[in-house]
Every structure is written in C-alpha cells, then in structure tokens.
Design brief:
single chain; 613 residues; mainly alpha; Arc Repressor Mutant, subunit A; 27 helices; 83% helix
Length: 613
C-alpha cells in the first residue's frame, strides 16, 4: 500500500516546520520524523527530487557541522535505498563530506568519504579508485583498524571496476585479515563478496562460491536480510556461469522474495539472472519476458552497464528462437549504449555482438566494419595491458639492477679494504722483523700469524669475487626469464589476432582483404624466430650443461631443448603451457616423450635428472 494522503500531509507539515523554524532542536526533531516516515514505507515511497532538494536546504541551516553531515548522509543513503542512484544523492553525500572536512574528526570524515566511494563504485565512476585511495589516507589518520580495513576493501573493489584483479586480490586479502583481527564478521562478509568476483575472473569457481556462501551465512545470522539477498544474487550469478541451474533455482527465488519492491537495482539483477537461467533451460519466451521486465525496472535507475547485459541476453535468446531481425535490433541498442560509457570491455562485447547479428541479417558491410572496429579495439586493449606489464617488469628489473650495482660496488670497496689491510699487515710484519731480528722465537710466531691473516684475506677476496659472479649470473637468469615472458606475450597476441581474422574470414564473403592480413602476420615464422633467440641465449648462458646433455642424448630436437630449458629454469607445468601456447595435457605428453629419450624410469624425477647435468 502506498503512503496515505494523511502521511503526505504530515510530511509536508514537518518539512514546513524545518524550513521555517528558528530552533535547531525543532529542526532535528522534524528531520527525524520525516526520515522515519520514509524509512517505514521504503518500498512504496515516491522519492520526489524536489522534496529532497527542500530537505537539502533545511539541513544547510543546521549550525553544528557534525549534525548537518549526519543528516546529509542519512537522507542520501535513504534515497539510494529507494533505488535512486542519482546526482541528488551524490550531492548530499558531498555536502556531508564538506561539512566534516573543516572539523578535527578524522574517523567521521573517513566514514563520510566511504559514502562517496560507495556511490562511485555502484555507478562505476572513473574517479572511484582515487576516492578509494583518499579513503585509506583519511582512515590511516583516524588510526582505527576497522576504518583501515574498510578503506582497503573499497580499494579492492575499485581495482575490480578497472579489471586489475591482481591488485584487487592483494587489497581484499589484506582487508579480510584486518577484519578478522578485530572480529568484524560483517566486514568479512563484505570483502568475501568482492573476493568471489576476483576468484570468478581467475576461473576459480569453487573458491568464488565458497566466498559468497560465507558472506551470505554471516548476513543471514546477523539479520541483514537485504545483504543476505544480494549475496544470494551474486552466488546465483556464479552458478549460472557454471551452468548449475538447480542451484540457481534453489537460491534466486529466496533473494527475489526479499528484494522485490524494496531494492530496484537488486530486483533488476534478479530478472537478469532469471532471463539467463531460462535461456540455459531452453525456455526462450520466459527468458525474454524476464529480461524485458528487468529492463523496465532499470529505467528508473539508468544503469547503462546493466542495460548492455539485458540487451546482450535478449540478442542471444532471440537468435536461439530464430528471430534474427529482433536480435539485430537489440544488438544496435547495446552498441549505442556502450558508446555512452567509459568501459572498453563493454564496447568490445557489444561490437562483437553487432558484428555477428548484422551478419545474420545479411548486413555484411556493417558486420565487416564492426569486426574491424572490434579487432582494432581489442588490439588497443591488449597493447595497453601488455605495455603496462612490460613497463612494470622493466621498472622492477631496473630497480634490481641498481641494487645489484650498489652491492657490486660495495663488494669492490670491501675487496679493496681487505687488500689494503693485508698490505698494511705485511708492512707491519716487515718493520717488526727488522726491529726484532734478535728475537727469533717471536719473529717465527709473528710469521705464522701473518701467514694466517694473509690466507684469511685471500679466502675473503675469493668469497667476494664468487658472490660478485653469482650476482651477475642471477641477473642474466632474470633477463632470460623476462625474454621468455615477452615471447609468450607476443605469441599470445599474434595467435589471438590470427584467430579473430580467421573468424571474420568464415563469416564474410569477401575474404581477399582478410587473407592479405593473415599472410602479413607470418605467425609461425615469428614464433619460431623468437624461440630461436631464446634457445640461443639459454645455450650461451649454460654451455657446459648443453654440451653434456646433447653429447649423452644426441637425438634431442629443438622442442626437447626448449622444454629442457624451461624445466632447468624451474617453470611449472602451468607456466610452460602458457609459454609454449599448449594445453596442460600437451605439456604432460611432451614431458613423457622427453623422459623416454632420456631413458628415465617411472621412479626417476625428470627435473632432478636435468639439474644433475
């Protein structure tokens, strides 16, 4: 039932009191009453923007900064809970932060900044990571471990938004560790929901499910039903990725019952998951009905990323029904929305959808242009990511190189000092010998002492020279590992480009230009050249090893030497599969063939045998 006419009259009168009162106590009492009226009927309340703007003006009149900030954040969060993630809610959060900024309450200021960061996360703002890092700066000034853990969780979530999952995992695990230290179960639950997203990206679905269940059980035990529902929705998403429809049918209806008419955004995600679920079950009409319902709910939220998901699923279901014309219409909508948001991955997905669907309706020129734009954008994304990785690696090795140079210089200084000490000892011994010729016994004793000192100095010099040599060898090994990484990255990009071009070739009647592009790649030759360079450098670094093993086993091929080199460098099977661009099964077969050539029994360890040369 909607808010009654009497309730609206009460709210209007209360807001009038706030706007015209000259007593701050009366102002707060009226604001509290307005808040409670909205909160009591949250699902049906009409979040009229003018009403909230009037509240904003009323809160401005409060003289105590901490009190004003409290009301700003309370009403902003109330509006968000109504499902209105808009500029009004964001501005109220900003106003709360500005009122607190001039105070000395760093812990309250941290909470205020958390509100802004949370808004940015849900809206996928480009400044999310900046706001999250600023939250951590304030939290550290506050000094409370709870605030620091909270800020770290926001940084982890912000890294997820920009697809930097390694940094996300680092910050989220640190946050979970701090929440565990202070025994904050709800904080642990919040972090585990984000950890589930990271594990899903790393294709560790079981870890993702476990993290989501952990969060859900904590929220359920704490009586936080809305958070419990969100966790169930996230868990259903992972189960859909795993195509475990029975589990989705078990958990999604429970979440739907909780969020229906109470949280628009969560409700929209429920209908998206229902659409995906029925699509997997082959019930395409039901899937389409649920997706359209979710789209309608999302109109009041205008989450463009969510809209792209709805359009994408609608395209899939209409294509499975054989209605390519309607699928094409939704592909155009997806492409149009993707151009309005700053998310290259969403644009990439929409371009591929458009390329395929326009081909299905015989719009070959449009399909070709979309494919070409897709390849260009994908190449740009891959190039940017690889450049970041290479730049980070180069920065690491430059720092290590500087450290090594400092160590080498220090060792040379120590060596010089040792030599000078030895020379001084010899001079002293000579002087003493000249002065004490008569004291033969003493001279003999002194001679033995000097001999021992000299031997000690020689031993130390030898040790320092060996350490210096070992440092140089270690550095060469890292350079070789870096070259292997560069080869793998280059091979991966070349092969992906060839696969994309081959896909275009299959779906396009005009193949002349595609063939020309494929021929220009010369992928096999470039890959072989890269590995030839790698093998040559490995042999130069390990001449005695290479000579010993090839003399004993003269039938080793280039591929065998390549595998032996990677095993010698202590790469595991997953890394070898990535570097050689083969499956784990392929690695096992290669290892088996190598064992036979090396005449190893089943009990002998391959790596240990290689290291023995």
């Amino acid at each position: 039932m909607h808010i009654s006419r009497i309730s609206w009259i009460i709210l209007f009168c209360l807001s009038y009191v706030v706007c015209n009162s000259q007593n701050e106590i009366y102002d707060q009492t009226a604001l509290d009453s307005i808040y409670e009226h909205f909160k009591a009927d949250l699902g049906n309340a009409n979040a009229d923007s003018k009403f909230f703007e009037a509240l904003d003006s009323s809160i401005q009149r409060l003289e105590v900064d901490t009190t004003a900030a409290l009301y700003y954040h309370k009403f902003a969060n109330l509006r968000l809970n109504m499902g209105h993630w808009d500029s009004i809610a964001e501005q109220m959060h900003k106003n709360g932060y500005e009122r607190l900024k001039s105070t000395e309450y760093q812990c309250k200021l941290a909470i205020s900044q958390f509100n802004l960061t949370r808004f940015s996360l849900f809206q996928n703002h480009p400044n999310t990571l900046e706001r999250a890092k600023h939250s951590l700066e304030i939290a550290k000034k506050c000094g409370e471990l709870e605030r620091i853990a909270h800020a770290q969780s926001y940084i982890g979530a912000a890294y997820i938004n920009i697809n930097d999952y390694k940094n996300a995992l680092t910050n989220l695990l640190e946050s979970e560790k701090n929440y565990t230290t202070i025994k904050d179960s709800t904080g642990i639950a919040m972090v585990n929901l984000d950890l589930a997203i990271v594990y899903t990206h790393f294709q560790e679905d079981l870890k993702s499910i476990a993290a989501t269940k952990k969060a859900a059980m904590i929220y359920k035990k704490a009586g936080r039903t809305m958070n419990y529902a969100v966790a169930l929705i996230d868990m259903s998403s992972t189960y859909l990725d795993m195509e475990e429809t029975d589990s989705v049918l078990k958990y999604l209806p429970v979440a739907h019952k909780i969020v229906k008419d109470k949280h628009q955004l969560a409700n929209a995600y429920v209908y998206q998951h229902y659409g995906n679920l029925y699509g997997q079950l082959g019930r395409y009409d039901e899937a389409i009905d649920n997706l359209k319902t979710g789209l309608k709910i999302n109109e009041g939220i205008d989450d463009r990323g969510l809209n792209i998901n709805f359009y994408s699923f609608l395209v899939d279901n209409y294509k499975k029904k054989g209605n390519n014309a309607i699928a094409y219409k939704y592909a155009l909508k997806s492409d149009s929305v993707s151009k309005l948001i700053d998310d290259k991955y969403e644009k990439l997905k929409s371009l591929l959808t458009l390329a395929n669907t326009s081909h299905d309706v015989n719009k070959h020129e449009e399909s070709r242009n979309a494919f070409l734009e897709y390849i260009k954008l994908k190449d740009s994304i891959l190039g940017a990511e690889k450049q970041k990785e290479v730049a980070a690696l180069e920065k690491f090795y430059e720092a290590e190189k500087r450290d090594n140079q400092i160590k080498i210089q220090q060792q040379e200084n120590d060596l010089l000092t040792t030599k000078n000490t030895a020379a001084n000892n010899r001079n002293i011994a000579l002087i003493i010998s000249l002065l004490l010729l008569a004291a033969i016994a003493y001279a003999l004793i002194n001679k033995f002492r000097l001999k021992a000192t000299k031997q000690e100095a020689i031993t130390k010099v030898t040790e320092l020279e060996n350490d210096n040599l070992n440092q140089k060898i270690e550095y060469q090994k890292r350079e070789l590992a870096s070259k292997a990484l560069h080869i793998a990255q280059k091979n991966e990009m070349l092969i992906e480009l060839k696969e994309d071009l081959t896909t275009i070739k299959k779906d396009n009647t005009n193949n002349t230009r595609v063939n020309h592009l494929i021929n220009k790649l010369h992928i096999d030759k470039q890959i072989d050249d890269n590995w030839e360079q790698f093998t040559t450098q490995f042999i130069e670094m390990n001449p005695s090893f290479y000579k010993s093993i090839t003399e004993l086993h003269s039938d080793l091929t280039k591929n065998d030497i390549r595998l032996i080199a990677l095993l010698k460098m202590k790469y595991d099977s997953n890394s070898i599969a990535s570097l050689l661009n083969i499956s784990l099964e392929g690695v096992k077969k290669a290892r088996y063939r190598l064992r036979k050539k090396l005449n190893l029994s089943s009990e002998e360890n391959l790596e240990k045998h290689i290291m023995s040369f």
